[in-house]
Specification:
With 151 residues, this protein is of the alpha/beta class. Helix content is 40%, strand content 25%. It is built from five helices and seven strands.
Length: 151
């Protein structure tokens, strides 16, 4: 994975790249994140979904779903993350956006996942938890008893 900094995301987060909101396959991936959004929200890990669609289309989309998921329109980021692929179908060239997920920690991409399904979201959820609470886990591992100041 290339060493790309994500300056706009300051906390441990899940970054997701999806194709246009008008595509059925995109909506099936989006529905998975709707199912997982409460679990991520409960532990303070935000979900950022990046689309190639314009901002106005995303605002309508966001109002319809009214979730805690952050919707972003950023074609440059999608290209920087190498999520754009050219395909040739019957002699015509098309650009396709490959869906990917990343865990962002300390403004860096820590882990990349190219498959989006429940099992892979769970894997990234656990990894994000480990990163977010690594200092807390180290304190507990290094202590003999549970000190009062941890809670």
């Amino acid at each position: 994975m290339n060493n790309i900094e994500i300056n706009n995301i300051k906390e441990t987060a899940l970054l997701v790249i999806l194709d246009s909101v008008e595509l059925e396959k995109t909506m099936s991936h989006h529905d998975l994140f709707l199912l997982w959004s409460k679990a991520f929200e409960n532990v303070g890990i935000p979900i950022y979904i990046v689309f190639p669609d314009d901002v106005m289309k995303l605002k309508k989309f966001y109002r319809f779903y009214n979730t805690d998921i952050h919707y972003i329109s950023d074609v440059d980021l999608i290209e920087r993350l190498d999520c754009v692929q050219e395909k040739v179908v019957f002699g015509k060239k098309y650009k396709v956006i490959l869906p990917k997920m990343y865990v962002v920690h300390d403004k860096k991409l820590v882990i990349e996942q190219k498959r989006i399904n429940n099992k892979m979201i769970k894997k990234l959820y656990i990894r994000a938890l480990e990163l977010k609470f690594e200092n807390f886990i180290k304190k507990i591992k290094n202590s003999v008893d549970i000190p009062n100041n941890l809670w």
